[in-house]
Amino acid sequence: MTYLLPQHPFSLSAWTRATFSLVLILGLSATLITGTAQAQTGTPPPLATVASVDLDRYVGRWYEIARFPNRFQKDCSGPATADYALQANGRVQVTNRCPLADGKTDEALGEARRIGGPGSPKLEVRFAPAWLSWLPMVWGNYWVIDLDPAYTLAAVSEPTREYLWVLARQPQVDAASWDALMVRLRAQGFDLSKLQKAGGGSPP
């Protein structure tokens, strides 16, 4: 942690300098206490995202490679696909599809919006009807936490780490890229024992 001190000492009164020092000490103490508590409880630090996402490059089709189990994909019998299309208003149309055991395809149409300024890797997605979009609870976090420079392999999650998806531009990922991604996700505090290959089975 870096603190930038004023360059002109005469601009601070003795009281201000003392207050600043106290705030600095309290800030450092809080950081140490938080870090100690996290170490003792095993709680991982806040989830980190990639630095930025270029939506023009991110849109298109992604194949689900693996995911944490979740209730809304429990009927999927094979890998899902996600198609993202940039809209004129800057939002993204989301079309998720997954095959069902009876041979049919389940399709969910939604919308994503960026949270933050241009390039922000944090988005929110809703699949509820548009007339309910004003309700905060219909929007779910969609954070891009890993993305290769070529925009061919990505990992998506949310702050609690309850959900995790690994997505790729192709239905399969080479072993080296997969292993490297697992190292990064493990460093982010994910329990990768829960990770399942899309459609069931073990990850690649």
Question: In words, what does this structure look like?
Answer:
This protein is α+β, with helices and mostly antiparallel strands. It folds into 2 domains: 11-41; 55-197, Calycin beta-barrel core domain (Lipocalin), CATH 2.40.128. The chain is built from 3 helices and 9 strands. It has helices spanning 14-41, 55-58, 175-187; strands at 60-67, 81-86, 92-99, 105-114, 122-126, 140-147, 153-157, 164-168, 196-197. Strands 1-2-3-4-5-6-7-8 form an 8-stranded antiparallel beta barrel. Strand 4 (105-114) and strand 5 (122-126) form a beta hairpin. The radius of gyration is 21 Å and the shape is globular. Residues 1-40 have low confidence and may be disordered.
In the sheet with the most strands, the strands line up as: 1-2-3-4-5-6-7-8
**Secondary structure: number of strands:** 9
- Give the helix/strand class: alpha+beta
Average pLDDT taken over every residue: 79
Which CATH first-tier class of the largest domain would you pick?
Mainly Beta
Which architecture of the largest domain does the CATH hierarchy give at level 2? Answer: Beta Barrel
- Low-pLDDT windows of residues: 1-40
CATH superfamily of the largest domain: Calycin beta-barrel core domain
- What order do the SSEs take from the amino end to the carboxyl end, as H and E? HHEEEEEEEEHE
User: Number of folding domains?
Assistant: 2
Share in β-strands: 25-35%
CATH topology of the largest domain: Lipocalin
What does the largest sheet look like?
8 strands, antiparallel, barrel
